[in-house]
Amino acid sequence: MTDESNEQKRENPRKIREGIVVSDKMQSTLVVAVMERVSHPRYAKTVQRTKKLYVHDEKNEAKIGDRVRVQETRPLSKLKRWRLTEIVERAR
What we know:
Elements: H1 3-9, E1 16-23, E2 29-39, E3 46-56, E4 67-72, E5 82-89
Parallel strand pairs: 3-5
Antiparallel strand pairs: 1-2, 1-4, 2-3, 4-5
């Protein structure tokens, strides 16, 4: 079986998120801010929540301000549980 066929048969497929690179100061690590719109439980108003993810970037390709797509992976360090899959849009 190939990797692609394993991805589709997996019970719980890996999460994919899209966000903006906030920091690229670390070696082969990015900090990506992911925005989430949720309805407030009591007031039913839409609220934006931001989550910071530590992302593995092997080639140090992404820079601050880039919009990137990340995928959940096994723990790579104390904080890193995501890896860079693609750069959707470069910063202007």
